């Protein structure tokens, strides 16, 4: 362990995706910070020479807060900031930050983004950004609100994110069956995330349109917008398989999204943190799908924004400044600053099952537009639909970059065509 008098950044775990974890650790090293990590297992970090490790279940907030704060104090760690990389840690980061007198969101405000029902309640103050929705608690309240929300609609758990636990209700005849499937699926035994705010859930209008995500940060209550990402999602699986930065939306829609994002984040009351807002652009304008009180994943902040800005805009580096109580920003809106295009594409199997053939990854690796490539599965591994196992469907991912005058979508299509995957 290094000199404990040195400055530490406290990570509440890191993102599990290897490409993002590498960048999260690299950013702290580049900033000259020692790294303390609190997580349930040190195994993912055995090759990183982490300076201090605190073994703790981050989901048990009261116990975790006590263990982390006591450990920091007893070891005289000079912690300058705390970072939540995942949704489950957002509330804990607020608690630990408050206990250690660090820059952080106030505990009462963090529930506005962690509890999706609270998010919807607050967003009623903004005209037309909510879909039709109802907050329900049981089958009776669900059934009573079906006609108000309309069919088709979605059942969503209040404490989850990344599309987990969402069930589509297509007909009135099958509504009761879908409700029971939703209740049986969203249990803590399947995923700890379902234990939070489980006393209420959301019934929402099923929207049609294009999906996008806003990346940004809040420093000293000022909202900063870094980028808008265009997403592609196979809604039948469902699986998000592509991200592109910068957005190709027309300027007036992008400006409206920036305006909505800024007002929504101010309503939430979060501070000294990253955020992401998932949005669908419909015929009735942009609608907010979700607000997260942390930087989003999917390599948007770790790779796509840096690549699209020719490495002039580095979200992770900026975040480490923000959580230390500094404001590194020179302007509030960066969406027009991209000098190149970047994108990420998942390599997906034709169906779930056991993989019997994978070919083409070396061709992708050698492609001139490839900037990063990761293969997550090998022959004989199994792949599962997201409803059966989270994050176990993609065989790999590629990150690409091109000039502003080219079409990153065509390049991602070309890279995807180089890989062949078969399952049985």
Task: Give the number of helices.
Answer: 12
In terms of quaternary structure, the protein is single chain
In CATH terms, what is the architecture of the largest domain?
2-Layer Sandwich
- The span between the termini is 48 Å
Tally of distinct domains:
4
| Helix content bin | 25-40%
* Cα Rg: 21 Å
Protein name: Biotin carboxylase
GO molecular function: ATP binding; ligase activity; metal ion binding
Pfam families: ATP-grasp_4 (PF13535), LAL_C2 (PF18603)
Keywords: ATP-binding, Ligase, Nucleotide-binding, Plasmid
Briefly summarize what is shown.
This protein is an alpha+beta fold and 424 residues long. The protein is 29% helix and 29% strand.
Structure description:
There is one protein chain. Strand 12 and strand 13 form a beta hairpin. The protein has 424 residues and is α+β, with helices and mostly antiparallel strands. It starts with 6 loop residues before the first strand and ends with a strand. The protein is globular. The protein folds into four domains: 96 residues, Rossmann fold (3-Layer(aba) Sandwich); 74 residues, 2-Layer Sandwich (Dna Ligase, domain 1); 131 residues, ATP-grasp fold, B domain (D-amino Acid Aminotransferase, Chain A, domain 1, 2-Layer Sandwich), CATH 3.30.470.20; 83 residues, ATP-grasp fold, B domain (D-amino Acid Aminotransferase, Chain A, domain 1). The mean pLDDT is 95.
């Amino acid at each position: 362990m290094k000199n404990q008098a040195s400055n530490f950044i406290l990570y509440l775990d890191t993102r599990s995706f290897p490409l993002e974890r590498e960048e999260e650790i690299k950013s702290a090293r580049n900033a000259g910070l020692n790294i303390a990590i609190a997580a349930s297992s040190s195994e993912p970090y055995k090759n990183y020479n982490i300076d201090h490790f605190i073994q703790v279940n981050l989901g048990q907030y009261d116990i975790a807060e006590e263990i982390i704060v006591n450990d920091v104090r007893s070891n005289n760690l000079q912690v300058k900031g705390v970072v939540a990389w995942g949704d489950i840690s957002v509330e804990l980061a607020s608690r630990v930050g408050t206990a250690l007198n660090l820059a952080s969101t106030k505990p009462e405000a963090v529930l506005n983004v962690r509890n999706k029902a609270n998010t919807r309640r607050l967003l009623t103050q903004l005209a037309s950004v909510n879909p039709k929705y109802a907050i329900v608690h049981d089958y009776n309240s669900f059934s009573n609100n079906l006609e108000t929300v309309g069919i088709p609609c979605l059942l969503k758990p209040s404490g989850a994110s990344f599309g987990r636990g969402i069930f589509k209700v297509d007909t009135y005849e099958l509504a009761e069956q879908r409700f029971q499937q939703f209740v049986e699926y969203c249990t803590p035994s399947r995923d700890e995330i379902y234990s939070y705010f489980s006393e209420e859930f959301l019934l929402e209008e099923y929207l049609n349109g294009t999906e996008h995500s806003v990346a940004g940060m809040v420093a000293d209550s000022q909202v900063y917008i870094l980028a808008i990402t265009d997403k592609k999602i196979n809604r039948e699986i469902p699986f998000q398989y592509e991200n592109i930065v910068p957005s190709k939306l027309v300027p007036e829609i992008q400006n409206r999204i920036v305006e909505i994002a800024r007002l929504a984040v101010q309503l939430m009351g979060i501070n000294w943190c990253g955020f992401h807002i998932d949005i669908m652009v419909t015929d009735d304008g942009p609608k907010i799908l979700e607000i997260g009180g942390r930087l989003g994943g999917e390599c948007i902040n770790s790779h796509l924004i840096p690549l699209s800005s020719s490495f002039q805009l580095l979200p992770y580096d900026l975040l480490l400044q923000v959580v230390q109580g500094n404001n590194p920003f020179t302007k509030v809106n960066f969406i027009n600053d991209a000098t190149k295009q970047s994108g990420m594409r998942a390599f997906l199997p034709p169906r779930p099952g056991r993989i019997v053939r994978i070919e083409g990854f070396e061709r992708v690796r050698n492609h001139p537009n490839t900037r990063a490539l990761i293969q997550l599965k090998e022959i004989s591994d199994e792949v599962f639909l997201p409803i059966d196992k989270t994050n176990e469907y993609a065989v790999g991912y590629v990150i690409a970059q091109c000039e502003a005058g080219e079409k990153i979508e065509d390049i991602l299509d070309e890279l995807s065509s180089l890989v062949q995957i078969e399952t049985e």
